[in-house]
């Protein structure tokens, strides 16, 4: 049984992807979604065992495979999954020319969707002059080749599409290295069976030997490049660890922003830090990590870290490659989990973020849920929202709820604890008084006999510098 969406429906032309400083025409993409009514065959379990439990949970929870073991985890429907693929395609610079959704009991080992449906898709894609087929599913190397033979056009699976978007958005050397590692690890198993096609001697009958020789040469080159890239990433991790040690020698807490891609993390980051990180409705617009200082209401300083967005069924190669970056999440004192409150898929997206945090072994970290984009909600629904101990509602774009969010962050952080004290500071200590004005909350101030009597609330790092003038303890 299959359900087909109209292939004649056209989308607006996507903004062309710019690479190497130039513009290229948007490629016409035909989307293919698959919805399996039952779980895959037991033979798939052996292949899955190589993944960590967190990665497998994310893969099992893909929209096209319906897990029955945990009914509490919200699931993406096949239509919602296809809608997400549409957003990914647009972010990659493609123009969506048509789409097809098939429902079946189990995947076809050779072509994923069956030869009959593949012929139908080939005709539909040809009718709209599609340049490539985008599958909302991971394809094996043999499935990809079998499909390409029938449709006679390029075929890209979901993981390859995400890797392409990452490659487009990587700006720093660190980000580029991490993307390259993920792409090489994705490519390596897909060399098998392409020996003749990749042979530099190429040509037909009698070229199998040179083809296989070229394949082995290519494989060795990739292994060599993978080792080189891993070594460079290890150098990045070492430098990042040294930087982190220097930061941790000073009592400054780190707060990490995490969330589903396009939840508004970069907009919130810019609002809190007055930075100029790229804000874009495209998925994975932020790839390279950014850390900036913020001042909390208690006058304590904290470091806010913006990270790459998560996504359903995040490719395991990306989680591994970006572990150096995601270590900032693992070492954070507080995680701000940003959600799109206006999205009907908010619960499903939060569930996927929870799974990635579990894979990063950061699920037990103190966490505050930030429900963003409340300005996009209907007025009545917006007025009914109430903050609680676990969540706060904001609009980063409009600046709504920022003071409340900062207060909640302040209360959640334990580093450089804040105490309320009374002080008597000589008026001649101008530098000390100026420091208190800048770094402490002053509740009262009186002048008497050349002294300034203050009731103030200040971090421990400040109180250590003025301990000789403290006249009462904490209250």
Q: Could you characterize what this model shows?
A:
The protein has 475 residues and is an alpha/beta fold. The chain folds into four domains: 2-156, Rossmann fold (3-Layer(aba) Sandwich), CATH 3.40.50; 171-234; 251-412, 3-Layer(aba) Sandwich (Rossmann fold), CATH 3.40.50; 418-472, Alpha-Beta Plaits (2-Layer Sandwich), CATH 3.30.70. Helices cover 40% and strands 20% of the residues. It has 17 helices and 17 strands. It has helices at 43-48, 53-60, 78-91, 115-127, 141-151, 158-169, 173-187, 195-198, 208-248, 265-273, 316-321, 323-330, 346-359, 379-383, 402-412, 430-439, 460-463; strands spanning 2-3, 18-19, 22-23, 28-36, 95-104, 132-135, 154-156, 253-259, 290-295, 301-306, 334-340, 367-372, 391-393, 418-426, 441-448, 451-459, 470-472. The strands form four sheets. A six-stranded mixed beta sheet has the order 9-10-8-11-12-13, sandwiched between helices. It has a five-stranded mixed beta sheet with strand order 1-5-4-6-7, with helices on both faces. Strands 15-16-14-17 form a four-stranded antiparallel beta sheet. α2 runs antiparallel to α13 (346-359). The radius of gyration is 27 Å and the shape is elongated. Mean pLDDT is 78; it is low at 1-22, 39-71 and 193-212.
